[in-house]
């Protein structure tokens, strides 16, 4: 199972209405599964600020967190997602050889 699939499986615990995990490692490193972006829409985020939402995601990922370098998180409630409909593009990595 790829790291991307493992992240998707772990995030299933948040009962997402929409989940997209992208492997963006090619933008940062050669051939290593190190950089990911997750777009997550879940009713469990209602009433939570972005820090609390991210803490929920980190808790769902558990030990997986130590197995990759970076995870860009875009977390939305279903209501927010209806208004936005798309996550922002990831910036190009500023850090050199990681």
UniProtKB/TrEMBL annotation:
SUPFAM superfamilies: BolA-like. One of its GO terms (cellular component) is cytosol. It comes from the Bacteria. InterPro entries: BolA, BolA-like_sf, BolA/IbaG_stress_morph_reg. Pfam families: BolA (PF01722). GO terms for biological process: DNA-templated transcription. Belongs to the BolA/IbaG family. This is BolA family transcriptional regulator. It comes from Pseudomonas gingeri. The lineage of its organism: Bacteria, Pseudomonadati, Pseudomonadota, Gammaproteobacteria, Pseudomonadales.
